[in-house]
Structures are given as C-alpha cells and as structure tokens.
Design goal:
With 392 residues, this protein is of the alpha/beta class. It is built from twelve helices and 15 strands. It is 39% helix and 15% strand. A seven-stranded mixed sheet has the order 2-8-7-6-5-3-4, with helices on both faces. The protein has a four-stranded antiparallel sheet with strand order 11-12-15-14. Strands 1-13 form a two-stranded parallel sheet. The chain is globular. The protein starts with 14 loop residues before the first helix and ends with a helix.
Length: 392
C-alpha cells in the first residue's frame, strides 16, 4: 500500500481549523470573555419561511408510501434545475436544462471538477485565494502558478498574454478580498481563455450580494464565456444553506476539449461518484427561487449588507484601507502598521475579543491583511466595530 504523497505537501492544518483551536484555547483560559466571531463565513440568520415550508411538505411526502422517493437523478430533480435556469434567465442568461447540475455545495464541486482534467494541466490561481482551489490541486500533484493580486490592482489580477494556462480560477465577488470584476475585466479573461484554449473555473458563490447592476453576476453574461467557463454557485450564503448543503454547477454544452464535451464528462463523473442531493433539500432549494423565496432571501442579504456597511464606515472613520463591503459580504482590511496577519489576529482576540481571519492564511500576498465577515448578528457586529475602533 502506498499513500498519495501529495497530501504531505499540504500545510499541516486547514486555516479555519487553526483559527478554531486558537479561539477555543483562549475561551477556556478566559471564560469571562464575550468573543465575537467574524472569521469563518457562516451565516447566522435561519432558513426563510418559504424554504422551511417547502422542506416540511417534502418531509411529509417522504412519510407516505404514495409520495415516497428513493434515489433521485444525480444531476438534480428537474423542478430545481428548471428553477435555476429561470433564475439565470432573469439575469439575461439562457441555459439548457442539461447544463445545470445540482450539488451539495460549491466547495465540493470546485474540488471534484478536477476529476475530469488531466494531471499535467497548467493551473493559474490567484494569490491570495480561497484555500480549496490550491489544496485540491496540490492533492492532485498539479503544477500551480499564481496570479499576483495586491493593493496595486485592487486584488483583481488580469491575464498575462505571455503566460500559457489550461485551468484558471476566478472568484467574483472574491473570497477573501470582496473585490468584484467588472464586465470589461471579465471579457478580457474570457478572450484570454478562448485564445489559450483554457477553461475558467468561475466561483460565483456570492453573486447575490452584487447590488451594482453594471457588475456581472454570472460569467455567462460575457460574450464567449460558454466556450471557456464552468460556473459554480451556492445557496449557503445567499439562502442560509451552510448547514443544509445545496449548490449548483453550470457546464455549458458548448464547452469542448478536442471534440469532447466537458458536460458529458462531468455527467459521467457525477453519475459514478455522486448519489445526488436529498429530495427534501432540493424542495427547499427550489423554494429559494420562488417569488416569495426571492423576497425573503433578499431581506436576509440586506441584513448582512447593513453589517458590511457598519464595518466599512468604521474602517473609513479609522482611516484603514480596505476592499469589499459594498457588493460583497467580506471586508479585506490592511493590518495596522507593524503587525503581521497572525499578530493582528492575536491582538484582536486577546484585547478586543473579536475573531477575524489572518490574510496570510489565503496566500503570501495576504500577509499584512485581515478578513472580516458580515454574516454575524447586527448588534454584535456594531459592538465588534466599537471594540476595534477603541483598540485603534
């Protein structure tokens, strides 16, 4: 027996596991401290009424022989796929039903999609970046090059024509930086990918937080994207499904490599390795896209956006440089002078009892930066900002 030695090339601990251990240790030694968590991007509002009602009805169905359902289609029930396609149509994007694949979350599919690509592909990944993009490629033993994102380009790196690429990761609105690509920037990326015959893996998990209508919510709003891009989306942050798990991946039929449709490869992979999302969860997910579900989820998003506005206003008052907070639930702030990311993490935890995420945990270009999330309770968010302002 031999192990996959590439796992030994990973960092010893996943970023958020390290944070959880440090916070737990501090809490045990300071039981009186009221710790406010703004690190992990987990939601705090419950599922909306439309979703709960749909799930309860589905549970009742599963309790009756006449309406009980066993294994479902691996790519998702048509009622949900149709709802997703209609949602895209509302944003001006036309999809075929067979291009929509229901999943248990964007994180799973972003990692699993690599199954359909050869090991010797050249991969471009932004730095800083959501750790899953990098770690899953390290696990597979692929060669990774970095797109340098920093304050000089607003943490929105653009393509270098002299660099060849096969697989390109883009996330907009970005996690962790909150930065959002505009239409012209995405058009440049789409043209580059088509020229290089590369595929863009586009993470749109936070698209519902975009309020500026001039900004694209899907890469398929860009001409030419269907021949070079796979899009991943999630209901985790937009509809509170972090504990319920449901997302979707779009693989266009026009996307081919050497005459082979990637859609067919992904379908084959899913039907082999995935048994599908539970019927009850899919009924709840379909309710998200109903008119009432959309109204209710937009109320939850507005709640988090108010939190982001409070955070942004506080940092502006303090004179702190940051990105995000407008069309994104994340704030990416510069640490005080002289502090590394982890040093600032310790300072906030120990002196203000506030938890964030050290920017260096997302890559070396994140050193000296810090991520805060807007997914907390409104009053606790205000209190956290008061503590940070007092700390200076």
């Amino acid at each position: 027996m031999k192990i996959n030695g590439h796992y030994l090339e990973l960092q010893d601990s996943y970023l958020f596991s390290t944070i959880a251990k440090k916070v737990a240790a501090f809490g045990e030694s300071h039981p009186e401290a009221e710790i406010i968590r703004m690190g992990i991007g987990d939601v705090t509002l419950p599922l909306c009424p439309a979703v709960v009602e749909a799930m309860q009805s589905a549970v009742a169905e599963m309790g009756q022989k006449e309406s009980f359902r066993g294994y479902g289609p691996e790519q998702g029930y048509d009622f949900l796929r149709e709802a997703i396609a209609a949602y895209y149509a509302g944003n001006g994007v036309s999809l075929e039903l067979e291009e929509v694949f229901v999943s248990d979350g964007a994180k799973s599919d972003v990692g699993n999609i690599l199954d359909i690509f050869a090991q010797d592909n050249q991969v471009l990944i932004p730095n800083p970046v959501y750790p899953v993009y990098l770690d899953t490629n390290i696990m597979a033993g692929r060669n990774v090059r970095y797109l340098q994102a920093d304050a000089s380009n607003g943490f929105l790196p653009m393509p270098d024509e002299t660099v060849d690429a096969d697989i390109i990761y883009l996330c907009s609105p970005n996690n962790p930086t909150g930065a959002v690509y505009n239409r012209q920037q995405l058009k440049t990326w789409v043209d580059y990918a088509n020229q290089k015959k590369a595929v863009i893996l586009f993470d749109a998990a936070y698209e519902a937080f975009i309020q500026d209508s001039s900004l694209p919510r899907s890469i398929y709003e860009i001409e030419g994207a269907k021949t070079c891009a796979i899009e991943f989306c999630s209901l985790s942050k937009t509809a509170g499904f972090t504990g319920t798990r449901c997302g979707y991946t779009i693989v266009p039929l026009a996307l081919e490599c050497g005459g082979t449709k990637l859609n067919r490869l992904w379908l084959r992979r899913q039907t082999t390795k995935f048994n599908g999302v539970p019927y009850i969860v899919q009924r709840g997910a379909a309710a998200v896209f109903s008119s009432e579900g959309q109204r209710q989820t937009k109320e939850a998003i507005a709640y988090y956006q108010k939190n982001a506005a409070v955070m942004a206003q506080t940092l502006q008052k303090m004179g702190v440089w940051f990105t995000g907070g407008t069309n994104s639930p994340y704030i990416w702030m510069k640490c005080p002078a002289g502090y590394s990311s982890w040093e600032y993490f310790d300072k906030l935890l120990e002196q203000a009892h506030v938890v964030g995420t050290p920017g260096v945990g997302f890559g070396e270009n994140g050193e000296g930066f810090f991520r805060l999330t807007a997914f907390g309770d409104a009053e606790k968010t205000k209190e956290a900002m008061r503590r940070m302002e007092a700390l200076g």
